[in-house]
Amino acid sequence: MLDNDITGVIDQEFTIEDDQFGEKKIVELKDGGAQIAVTEENKEEYVRLVVAFRLDNSIKDQIKAFLDGFYDIIPRNLIQIFEPDQLELLISGMSTIDVDELRNATQMSGWKSGDPEIGWFWRALRSFSQEERSRFLMFVTSSSRVPLGGFAQLQGASGTQPFQIQKLYAKEGSLPQASTCFNLLLLPTY
């Protein structure tokens, strides 16, 4: 619509059809919208109002219900001090995975830090891109992000649970396994 001349092509008023729980209703996008034709001169306003309706107005009741519940848990005055990116960091954690920090916070069972397989493991993890490291972290912990307090604050099934590498005594050719409830990587010998 914005890229083409709509003169004589579109017969539309400043209204939109909205599905409200299975019932189709015509909604005016602005006061008197049912009597205002969309023309070449006002089509940008029409498109802006349609987008605003779809992204804001059509879900305002759901957003209000969500925010009411959210503010019951975290009072509005406490959350308003954060910018959106700060709030995301607080809720989701950090997206950058520091391999040295992970190594320092890791506990081992059945392995020693000098074992060749452990050296290969850390070398392989260092060679990963951040996206691959995130996928690895998701595989072992069920989260692709580092907690705000770092790897020392990883959560498991029973609270804070450190990252662990345990030797997997299995048949030759076995693949690494994970137990996400315990932030546990089961690493076979190679």
UniProtKB/TrEMBL annotation:
<dbReference type="GO" id="GO:0006511">
    <property type="term" value="P:ubiquitin-dependent protein catabolic process"/>
</dbReference>
<dbReference type="GO" id="GO:0000209">
    <property type="term" value="P:protein polyubiquitination"/>
</dbReference>
<dbReference type="Pfam" id="PF00632">
    <property type="entry name" value="HECT"/>
</dbReference>
<comment type="pathway">
    <text>Protein modification; protein ubiquitination.</text>
</comment>
<dbReference type="GO" id="GO:0016874">
    <property type="term" value="F:ligase activity"/>
</dbReference>
<feature type="domain" description="HECT">
    <location>
        <begin position="1"/>
        <end position="190"/>
    </location>
</feature>
<feature type="active site" description="Glycyl thioester intermediate">
    <location>
        <position position="181"/>
    </location>
</feature>
<keyword id="KW-0808">Transferase</keyword>
<dbReference type="GO" id="GO:0005737">
    <property type="term" value="C:cytoplasm"/>
</dbReference>
<dbReference type="InterPro" id="IPR000569">
    <property type="entry name" value="HECT_dom"/>
</dbReference>
<keyword id="KW-0436">Ligase</keyword>
<keyword id="KW-0833">Ubl conjugation pathway</keyword>
<protein>
    <recommendedName>
        <fullName>HECT-type E3 ubiquitin transferase</fullName>
        <ecNumber>2.3.2.26</ecNumber>
    </recommendedName>
</protein>
<dbReference type="GO" id="GO:0061630">
    <property type="term" value="F:ubiquitin protein ligase activity"/>
</dbReference>
<dbReference type="InterPro" id="IPR035983">
    <property type="entry name" value="Hect_E3_ubiquitin_ligase"/>
</dbReference>
<dbReference type="GO" id="GO:0005634">
    <property type="term" value="C:nucleus"/>
</dbReference>
<dbReference type="InterPro" id="IPR050409">
    <property type="entry name" value="E3_ubiq-protein_ligase"/>
</dbReference>
